[in-house]
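Late entry, written up from scratch paper. The run itself happened at the end of the previous shift, but nothing got recorded in the book at the time, so transcribing now.
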Amino acid sequence: MFMFKASVYLEALREFRPDILDACTRACESGSQDMTFVRVGEAAFANCPEESIDYAVMEKTTDAGWSDIGSWSALWDIGEKDSEGNICKGDVLAVNTRNSLIHAEHKLVATLGVEDPVVVETKDAVLVAHKDSVQDVKKIVEAIKNDGRHEHMNHREVYRP
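Output as recorded:
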């Protein structure tokens, strides 16, 4: 989550990703006003590059003093590790395992003879990835979408007010 003045973010986009700023400007200019709601131009907005604030701006700026704790490997970077460099949450049995992040929500997760994995077990799925590849989880989400699966949208447990 980020909080900053719109003018500061626009200036950062101007510096690091002028293509995104240009696409958003065109989308606003081609949009319409619907009472107090601004509807951006759909065609122009569809041409905006798909890149998160993290990658587009935050990783490139030196002014923010931030860390991307939105990834599992980043949690490993800042977390308290055991003598083998592991961070384990839940019912975990790590044998001959080093520099890992293992997160078990519902079942025993056991690892044996591995180094640098991220293992995440939830009600919906299990993720096993090398720490250096965990940022590519969006490729898994794309594959789920392309296969017509529902896991990226519907979860077994939904929290509602």
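The chain has six helices and eight strands.
(Scratch paper discarded after transcription.)
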